[in-house]
Design goal:
By secondary structure, the chain is of the alpha/beta class. The protein is built from 11 helices and 10 strands. The strands form 2 sheets. Strands 3-2-1-4-5 form a 5-stranded mixed beta sheet, with helices on both faces. Strands 8-7-6-9-10 form a 5-stranded mixed beta sheet, with helices on both faces.
């Protein structure tokens, strides 16, 4: 089965062709990161315009790279939610028009299930499986007992972890996207700033990062008032150390309680080196394997949407 994946939920325009939910024939991604850098974040209207400019070109490149004809496609899978409304509409309209032209099914995919299935591209799924979803808009623990079965165990009550990373990066004066550079400057640095570990004891699998973010802001504001110099690398490392510890501890606790066979990390923050290493080390202690996607599949891409679409269609979900 050939599935055409279409992703345009934020600032990447992507189209992919995937065979049988596993073989990536093409995965073309046009990123707008350089365009939004000058604004310090994604501007929805600007993102929508660039999706419109690039969507047809990306479609054509995907077919060329995959060496297939549009008429060879069996199913179209497109990100339906969540995301920026204007950006989503560009991808949805393009996907539905294509499906209508070739009289084939078009199914909408939840962006988060796409990130989870990004792991399936290079790994196998062993059930029950626990997914730690970490991105700019989401922090969730999801239990899967079989393919395309998702049970949300917990989520963030305020800021998503990726959002907290980016905001901390911004107040530290780091380039956009801030989260990437927080991870970079933290490498090999000893954390020296005291920051709160927020576990929400009565809500074992929910998260809260707004207090941690505010604590970082308070340290910077107090230092500015006293005209003290902040050790940016150490403050970044202190933030990252606390944030990752909470993520890892809650994930391991859930893995034990639900007796899972594997843990996967999903979403843009799956690219974070400290999270990868810390969770892998903690899971090893309880004889569990941790998988995460290659860097090219961590960020938004259409291949993961096509893989998720393959299982949704095949299982008639």
């Amino acid at each position: 089965m050939l599935v055409l994946g279409v992703e345009s939920s934020c600032d990447e325009t992507s189209v992919a062709v995937v065979r049988d939910g596993k073989e990536i024939l093409s995965n073309i991604i046009y990123s707008q990161i350089d365009i939004h850098k000058e604004f310090g974040g994604v501007v929805p209207e600007v993102a929508s315009r660039h999706h419109i400019k690039k969507i047809t070109i990306v479609f054509e490149e995907a077919f060329k790279k995959a060496n297939v004809l549009p008429s060879d496609i069996d199913v179209v899978a497109v990100t339906g939610k969540p995301g920026l409304v204007g950006s989503l509409l560009v991808g949805i309209n393009a996907a539905e028009a294509f499906a209508l032209a070739f009289n084939i099914p078009c199914i909408k995919i939840d962006h988060i299930t796409g990130h989870i299935y990004a792991n399936y591209i290079e790994h196998t799924f062993d059930f029950p499986l626990l997914a730690l979803v970490v991105s700019g808009g989401h922090t969730e623990l999801v239990l899967m007992k079989e393919h395309y079965s998702f049970e949300k165990l917990g989520e963030t009550l305020d800021d998503a972890i990726g959002e907290a990373y980016d905001k901390v990066g911004r107040v530290l004066g780091l380039p956009y996207p801030g989260g990437v550079y927080v991870d970079k400057i933290s490498q090999g640095v000893t954390p020296t700033y005291e920051l709160p570990l927020v576990y929400l004891d009565n809500q074992p699998y929910n998260f809260s990062f707004s207090g941690l973010k505010s604590a970082v802001l308070n340290i910077i504001n107090k230092a500015n008032m006293k005209k003290e110099v902040i050790d940016k690398a150490s403050l970044a490392a202190s933030f990252q150390s606390v944030a990752v510890k909470v993520l890892v501890d809650k994930t391991i606790n859930a893995a034990k309680e639900f007796k899972v066979k594997k843990i996967v990390i999903a979403g843009g923050v799956a690219a974070n080196s400290h999270l990868r290493n810390s969770l892998k080390e903690a899971a090893k202690a309880i004889d569990l394997e941790v998988n995460y996607p290659s860097m090219k599949y961590c960020t938004d891409n259409a291949a993961m949407i096509a893989v998720s679409g393959y299982f949704k269609y095949k299982l008639n979900k």
